[in-house]
């Protein structure tokens, strides 16, 4: 097993992201958020944008899963969608690069296979993570050679809209763990409580990514307010 994958095994990876327009949108704040996550026991960080990643790497020595959310017009693929974003991420020294690995055509017209081969050829030493939305996409990403597969986009595509990782007793993550043969499976996407995190770990995922439930206080506050009926 790759030493980095061993380092994050069975641990919590905290996604420290705040997009433009959100209250905590600031590279400085994301750096401190990552530091807080480290102090709480996180084994890794997932982060968006070159500026956030650079600041986070100043604050913590944890491995970083880097993405660039770049929207091209109305195109639905926006998580590290082209080689341009990969090149920018590689320069930050991120250990893992995650990308949309759904079956949708990318903004530059390429399919996933073409994109993967280009990235792997240019950056053979960087671990690659496939953000998928279905079991079939997970199997295909594994066959291509991705190091990590995660159902990050389950519930966020037209085909899976509204679905949650814990639906039907965690059926989707169980199927992915069973069918993916080589890549490590990480649970990500709507892991909203410690109980869900524990449950997916018991399904034998390699690690767990939690984002908004830890790092988006506006969402956390709303959950309390909604539960109180206010």
Automatic annotation (TrEMBL):
Pathway(s) per entry: Amino-sugar metabolism; N-acetylneuraminate degradation; D-fructose 6-phosphate from N-acetylneuraminate: step 3/5
Domain of life where this protein originates: Bacteria
EC number(s) reported in the record: 5.1.3.9
Swiss-Prot/TrEMBL keywords: Carbohydrate metabolism, Isomerase
One MF annotation (Gene Ontology) recorded for this entry: N-acylglucosamine-6-phosphate 2-epimerase activity
GO biological process: carbohydrate metabolic process; N-acetylmannosamine catabolic process; N-acetylneuraminate catabolic process
Pfam families: NanE
GO cellular component: cytosol
Family annotation (InterPro entries): Aldolase_TIM, NanE, RibuloseP-bd_barrel
Catalytic activity reported: an N-acyl-D-glucosamine 6-phosphate = an N-acyl-D-mannosamine 6-phosphate
SUPFAM superfamilies: Ribulose-phoshate binding barrel (SSF51366)
Known role: Converts N-acetylmannosamine-6-phosphate (ManNAc-6-P) to N-acetylglucosamine-6-phosphate (GlcNAc-6-P).
Family per similarity comment: Belongs to the NanE family.
PANTHER family (alphabetical): N-ACETYLMANNOSAMINE-6-PHOSPHATE 2-EPIMERASE-RELATED (PTHR36204)
Protein name in UniProt: Putative N-acetylmannosamine-6-phosphate 2-epimerase
Native species: Paraliobacillus ryukyuensis
């Amino acid at each position: 097993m790759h030493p980095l994958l061993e380092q994050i095994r069975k641990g919590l990876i905290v996604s420290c992201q705040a997009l433009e327009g959100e209250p905590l949108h600031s590279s400085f704040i994301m750096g401190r958020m990552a530091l807080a996550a480290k102090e709480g026991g996180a084994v890794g960080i997932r982060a968006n944008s070159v500026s956030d990643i650079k600041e986070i790497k100043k604050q913590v020595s944890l491995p970083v899963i880097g993405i660039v959310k770049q929207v091209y017009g109305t195109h639905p693929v926006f998580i590290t969608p082209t080689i341009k974003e990969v090149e920018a991420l590689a320069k930050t020294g991120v250990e893992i690069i995650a990308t949309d690995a759904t079956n949708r055509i990318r903004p530059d017209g390429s399919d996933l296979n073409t994109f993967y081969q280009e990235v792997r050829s240019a950056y053979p030493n960087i671990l690659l993570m496939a953000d998928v939305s279905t079991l079939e996409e997970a199997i295909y990403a594994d066959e291509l050679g991705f190091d990590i597969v995660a159902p990050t986009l389950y519930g966020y595509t037209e085909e899976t809209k509204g679905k949650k990782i814990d639906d039907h007793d965690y059926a989707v993550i169980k199927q992915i763990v069973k069918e993916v043969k080589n890549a490590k499976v990480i649970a990500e996407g709507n892991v909203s409580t410690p109980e869900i995190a524990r449950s997916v770990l018991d399904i034998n995922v390699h690690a767990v990514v939690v984002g908004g439930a830890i790092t988006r206080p506006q969402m956390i506050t709303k959950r309390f307010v909604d539960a109180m009926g206010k």
